[in-house]
From TrEMBL:
The lineage of its organism: Bacteria, Bacillati, Bacillota, Bacilli, Bacillales. Keywords: Membrane, Transmembrane, Transmembrane helix. Its main location: membrane. Residues 84-138 form the NfeD-like C-terminal domain. It is found in: Membrane. The keyword Cytoplasm does not apply. This is NfeD-like C-terminal domain-containing protein. InterPro entries: Membrane_assoc_protease, NA-bd_OB-fold, NfeD-like_C. SUPFAM superfamilies: NfeD domain-like. It is a multi-pass membrane protein. The chain crosses the membrane at residues 7-28, 34-64. The keyword Metal-binding does not apply.
Length: 144
């Protein structure tokens, strides 16, 4: 298998994980892998060059996007979707076992979720806390 194919597969996998986590960090790694794929097409024997350029692109994007994201978050009218989640009702899509992740649907979005109790599919839950991409939920009936 050619190196550019491997880089392209890595970029695609990172992009899929990015869409699930809603952060920009994996997007930058995905773009770095895509650039490494382009370098692999140009210089198929330059593995060190491919890795170096891919890492450099990911680091530069990460470094320069932080001030932009910080400015965007501080702008007037910006509301982080995560802060609005606390207290909302959701439905368990994939069962949650204590200490393991499941999936909860809130509105039209799905979130990775944890809980201190076992929750079955289709149970109603309330969002108690939100981390970066993972929410903590409790059974809806226990709160009311």
């Amino acid at each position: 298998m050619h190196a550019w194919v491997i880089w392209l597969i890595a970029a695609g996998i990172l992009l899929v994980f990015e869409m699930m986590t809603l952060t920009f960090y994996l997007l930058w790694l995905s773009l770095g892998a895509a650039v490494a794929a382009i370098i692999a097409l140009i210089a198929p024997e330059g593995i060190l060059l491919q890795v170096s350029v891919g890492c450099l692109v990911a680091l530069v994007l990460t470094f320069f996007s932080k001030p932009l994201v910080k400015r965007l978050r501080a702008s007037k009218g910006f509301q982080d979707i995560g802060t609005e989640l606390v207290g909302k009702q959701g439905v368990v899509v994939e069962p949650i076992e204590p200490g393991q992740f499941g999936i909860v649907k809130i509105g039209g979005d799905t979130w990775s979720a944890t809980s201190f109790e076992a929750l079955r599919k289709d149970e109603l839950v309330r969002v108690m806390k939100r981390g970066s991409t993972i929410i903590e939920v409790q059974r809806w009936e226990e709160i009311i």
